[in-house]
Design a protein that fits this description.
This protein is an alpha+beta fold. The protein has one domain (about 15-140). It has helices at about 15-40, 45-55, 105-115, and strands spanning about 60-70, 75-85, 90-95, 120-125, 135-140. A 5-stranded mixed beta sheet has the order 1-2-3-4-5, sandwiched between helices.
């Protein structure tokens, strides 16, 4: 998809950057609403269902448990991985409901972004007491 404009130093067109920023903002707003309503301590699947509902209410395209194939040695492996959410075919959202996010969770999201050829992901930990401290934006190739 070609969204007009010249490219910035990172190779991204300003219109695409604006679109990604708008979508990630909508995701964060929806996650905050879900966390405020449900609180911490539930299973990840509950937060996922509620977040999907909120994002679709906002008119965003959401694919939950989206299969992402992995290419290896010239072969496409259909058993690649499943992204928790892919929103508007732009942002991968990795959900957690844990006491503390481990460094491996960010590495995992970076790998998902690379394999899915996406630029931005959000790691959202609904287990955090304050969700604001449980959200990490991760960029690949920017």
């Amino acid at each position: 998809m070609d969204i007009g404009g010249t490219r910035d130093d990172d190779g991204m067109k300003p219109a695409m950057r604006d679109r990604i920023n708008r979508v990630t903002g909508e995701i964060v707003d929806a996650a905050m609403a879900v966390h405020k309503g449900l609180g911490p301590g539930l299973l990840e699947s509950v937060y996922q269902a509620a977040l999907v509902h909120e994002l679709r209410k906002k008119g965003l395209g959401v694919v939950a448990e989206a299969p992402v194939p992995v290419a290896w040695d010239g072969v496409v492996l259909e058993a690649g991985f499943r992204a928790d959410l892919i929103v508007d075919d732009l942002v991968i959202v990795e959900l957690k409901s844990v006491e503390t996010v481990a460094p491996v969770h960010k590495k995992q999201l970076l790998t998902y972004l690379r394999l899915a050829d996406k630029r931005v992901g959000l790691l959202i930990n609904f287990g955090a007491e304050l969700l604001k401290s449980g959200i990490t934006r991760v960029a690949h190739g920017l």
